[in-house]
Structures are given as structure tokens and as C-alpha cells.
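Q: Predict the assembly, please.
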Amino acid sequence: MLRRWLPFPLLTAALILTWLLLNESLSPGAILLGTLLALIVSRLVVRFEIPRSRIIRPISALKLACNVLVEIVRSNNAVARIILMPNKRYRSGFVLIPLDMRNPYGLTLLACIITATPGTLWVEFDSKEHAMLLHVLDLIDEDEWRRIIKERYEKRLMEIFE
Amino acid sequence: MSIPVLNVPGWAAGVTAVLLLLGSGLAFTGCLGLLRLSRFYDRMHAPTLGTTLGIGSVLIASMLFFSVLQARPVLHEILIAILMVVTTPITLTLLARAALYRDRSEDDPDVPPMIGKQRMHSLQEGEVFVQEEEQDRGQALLDE
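A: Predicted assembly structure:
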């Protein structure tokens, strides 16, 4: 019964929250309508047969989110410097990074994190080789970047999802 | 409708102004980078300034200003931030892959070959060497 009405509890909760934020209201009417809509939509989503996953460690997810925020601010600064100082020398290039993570949500999140960090860009992913191509604006050491992506992000995303 | 800006205390107006200047400055720097950097892949990095910290500061400024002005929490800007983070990788990856496809078909030496083929060229990585299957994969994809 619970499984039938709440096939994706997190999705349902997120949809209710979205509805309440959009309406900017916590009135009983808004909560009721939001819940109804969220229940209907999450039942429809079952038909897409999206893979199931759970966040196993919410606390490490929060920690990762804080780290990513700090990293975004730092790399904003770094990229702005490269743009604003015309004489600054930099070398850009591609790095091939083999990945061990198989969880599709983890991979999606990794793509979001890498793209949201200025200076790094998720260019390509090969699902057969399980490797991704990263483009780095200020590439000093390729092995350093392999280590950063694997240690800082992939390992912790695997902790969260797998 | 006149906006009662004067009802906002000085500190809130000040913080809002700083955040707005920071956000628009970053967006401007991003556009400048798009103009100034030389290679396509380098240029793609520049606008991310505007889509990350740039839009972040503008959204925080908006939340702060209207929360203080209307004396209630105004939080729906969070949705804009979430949707930005979720959607920008799609367009950026699409652009990058289109450029890669073009450069690879022109045999640009600065661009790495397809991931499967690249693995074959860099044997020193010590990975498993899969020869024929990988070689034909690009062709097989085209045939399909």
C-alpha cells in the first residue's frame, strides 16, 4: 500500500516542497493541493521505470554540499583571475578519468558538481569503458586532477549512494 | 505601483547592493572571458561564472531584500538555483560534445580521440587492452 502510493518518497517530498515554495504559502489548502499533485505525479513517474536509489548517508551528503560550495567560490575566483589578467599564462587540456562509480544518480550528481565548478567541464562519458573526459581550464598536473575527482568527489558520492 | 524602498534598513540595502554588484560583476567577467579566451573549450568555462556564484549572489540579494521589505521569508529563489544547477550541465555537455564531434571528424590533433580509442593509444596506463571490439565500435555506432 505504502509502496503503491509512495513509490519515490524523496521525489514526492521534493515536489510538495517545490509547490509550497512556488506558492509561497503554508496554508492548509496549498499543502493539500501540493500533496495531491505530488502523489499523482510520483505515481505517473513509475511508468518511466527510472532506477531506484537511496541516499544512505545524508550527513556525508551535507558535508559534500558544503565542500562543493566552498570549491565553487574558490574556482570562481581562479577563473575570474585568468580572464581579467590578460598576461596570466595558463594551459588548458583534457583529462581522461576512469570511474568506479556505477550508480546513475551518483554519476549525474558528479556531472552537476563538475559543471557547476568553473574551470572544469564534463565533456564526455563512456558507459562501456566507465571513463569520463574532463576539460580543465588551468591544467597543471593531470594526475592531480584524476586524484581530485576520484578522492574528493567520486569516493564520497559512492559513500552516499552505494 | 511605487516600491517603498525606504522601508528597507540601511544594512539590508547595503548587503543587497554589494551582492548585486558582485553577481553582475561575475556575469560581466564571464561574458568578457567568452570574448577574450581563444579556444572554444576554454571559452565554455567563462559563462559558468555567471551561472554559479554570479546568479547565486543575485538570488541571495533578492531573497534578503524582499524578505526584509515584506517582513516574511521569501525563499522561492532557491528553486531558480536548483533548476540552474540541474539544467546547465545538459546544455554545456551538448555544446562540448558537438564541438568534439566536429574536431574529431576534422582530425584536430589537440582533441583526444573517442574514449575507447584513447584507451588503446595510452597503453602505459596499464588498463585491459581490448582491441577489435573497441576499434569497430565507432563505426558500428555510425552504421546503426
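Chain B has six helices and no strands. Residues 114-144 of chain B form one domain.
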